[in-house]
Specification:
By secondary structure, this protein is α/β, with parallel strands linked by helices. The protein has a single domain, classed as Rossmann fold, CATH 3.40.50. The protein is built from eight helices and seven strands. It has a seven-stranded parallel beta sheet, with helices on both faces. Helix 6 links the parallel strand 5 and strand 6. It is globular, with a radius of gyration of 17 Å.
Amino acid sequence: MSRIVTVAASKGGVGKTTLSLDLAAVLPRALALDLDWDSGGLTRMWGHDPTERRTARLLDSMESGNPPRPLRARRRPDLVPAHPDLASSAISATLVADLLPKWAAEWESQYRYVVVDTHPGANPLTDGAMAAADVVVVPVVLGARELDALEGMLDDFEGYRMLLVPMKVPATPPKRWVERLNAAAIKARVQVAPPLSLYPAMSKRVRRAALSLEPNPGTWVRRAAEEYRAVGKSVEESCV
């Protein structure tokens, strides 16, 4: 069946949503599924406003058990959008962990990968998506508080197959934080993907096409897209 790649982080602001969008674009035949109900999540970044629709296809599918129908748009990966009502739903982690593999099996002929974006921190939707994942991709910013949160997450989810992705890495990475990241990865026996560089222009792209699907990319976009492709290769290898 389709491989489930869950992007999760215990702390917000580390680039999780951006990573989810571009990872779904670089992985072959990938579908993005958004479980983050905040307005700053993947669904809005993709360009969809769920409040403009009368129905919430993801919530309806979780009630019926049938796989939701994805949205499609140019220069974007196919998307199953989130909805604000996810925040107040009583959906259990067990239900999410059961439904995602079921849907992945039914999507197999169309998609090879299902990239699941999640709400940061502990909640039933994120816990269920992590339990169902073939690999949990964890974006990591090289800073003291961010690494504190990462180490706690690695302890809480010991035994999960994880891939750490250094995010927003400056041209000269701070050596002590790099060493701390590598030490945490070795202790938890998880892999570290190639880094994604810090691009100041990235923060200005609110609703956008995926970097790797830009029709006329500039220099920094081409560089960033190549970095995301390298991370995609690491994800593919982790799913084998």
